[in-house]
Design goal:
Helix content is about 40%, strand content about 15%. It is of the alpha/beta class and about 300 residues long. The chain has two domains: about 140 residues, Rossmann fold (3-Layer(aba) Sandwich); about 150 residues, Aspartate/ornithine carbamoyltransferase (Rossmann fold, 3-Layer(aba) Sandwich), CATH 3.40.50. The longest helix is centred in the last third of the chain and has 20 residues. The chain binds phosphoric acid mono(formamide)ester (CP) and norvaline.
């Protein structure tokens, strides 16, 4: 059955809760040495039109550790860079594999690809969202605080970025407080300042009651021509010792990585006791295993296999 995951909202809240519980179980079982074959006989194609370290390796490892196999394509190593349209690539890959992950630029391109595919498509990062990263981030928050709905989460940086957009979507689903601090011109696209979401220019105000302080690069992939302008615009929006001093001591620091030390995050914030950045990166593996099981065999069924 074709069931895409292009946005967090492509799953119900209950499905996401079950997925996060399964991710925690898979993490514990991996640490205990238990092996799985829930995806035996299944093939995943990974298609990268942008660079990746974590997404590529975590999906490849996830599929292999669940007994399935993976084929990875990059734009430059395939006909994509030579202009083959996404709807042709999607239709062809769907004849060979059971599920496809696409990392691309515009969300229109992602939707065109998904509409043409006869197998499920996972968004492995687009300009508008990074939902597989959010699964790992939410797992990390749960590990540290137990529940999601009563958390206070700060996002400091580019409110228009894919990460900020996915955090906004997660706040809508789980109901936690989300405080976004962004400079002029970089507030979220929609008027996000509603209900449990606030938008401010004041990073200290955003983190003052936070359980989680979250940031992302100031220049996302595809925006390299703007990097000088962005470097200027985001000065004062670094997650550093001064900002952490304005937040509760229990607050944890998240960053989806890769990080630019000295820009959006300081060395000491990234490497300090409050950082959970490498647990967060690890959780990509466990959360994506749970997602692949959900889309390929049904989450509840996979847990009983
Ligand atoms: N966080 C993340 O998606 O990392 P990569 O770009 O390395 O995949
Ligand atoms: N916002 C960043 C996330 C990288 C994982 C980007 O799109 O480049």
């Amino acid at each position: 059955m074709k069931r895409h995951f292009l946005r967090l909202g492509d799953c119900t809240k209950t499905e996401l809760e079950v997925l996060l519980a399964r991710a925690a179980q898979l993490k514990a079982e991996r640490k205990a040495g238990k092996t799985h074959t829930t995806l035996a006989g299944k093939t995943l194609a990974l298609v990268f039109e942008k660079a990746s370290t974590r997404t590529r390796v975590s999906f490849e490892a996830a599929m292999g550790q669940l007994g399935g196999q993976v084929i990875t394509l990059t734009a430059e190593g395939s006909q994509i860079a030579r202009g083959e349209p996404p709807q042709d690539t999607a239709r062809v890959l769907a004849r060979y594999v059971d599920i496809i992950m696409l990392r691309t630029f515009g969300d229109d391109r992602l939707r065109t690809f998904a509409s043409a595919s006869t197998v499920p498509v996972i968004n492995g990062l687009s300009d508008g969202a990074h939902p597989v990263q959010l699964l790992a981030d939410l797992q990390t928050v749960q590990e540290n605080f137990g529940t999601l709905h009563d958390r206070v989460i700060a996002f400091v940086g580019d409110g228009k970025s894919n990460m900020a957009q996915s955090w906004i979507e997660a706040a809508g689903i789980f109901g936690f407080q989300l405080h976004i601090a962004a400079p002029d011109g970089y507030a979220p696209h929609a008027n996000a300042s509603v209900g449990n979401i606030t938008v401010t220019h004041d990073a200290r105000e955003a983190v003052k009651n936070a359980d989680v302080i979250n940031t992302d690069v100031w220049t996302s992939m595809g925006q390299e021509a703007e990097s000088k302008k962005r470097l200027e615009a985001f000065r004062g929006y670094s997650v550093d010792a001064a900002l952490l001093a304005a937040a509760p001591k229990k607050a944890i620091v998240l960053h989806c990585l890769p990080a630019h030390r000295g820009e959006e995050i300081s060395e000491e914030a990234l490497e300090g006791a409050q950082s959970r950045v490498f647990d967060q990166a690890e959780n990509r593996l466990h959360a994506q295993k749970a997602l692949l099981e959900l889309l390929l065999v049904g989450g509840t069924r996979a847990a009983s296999l």
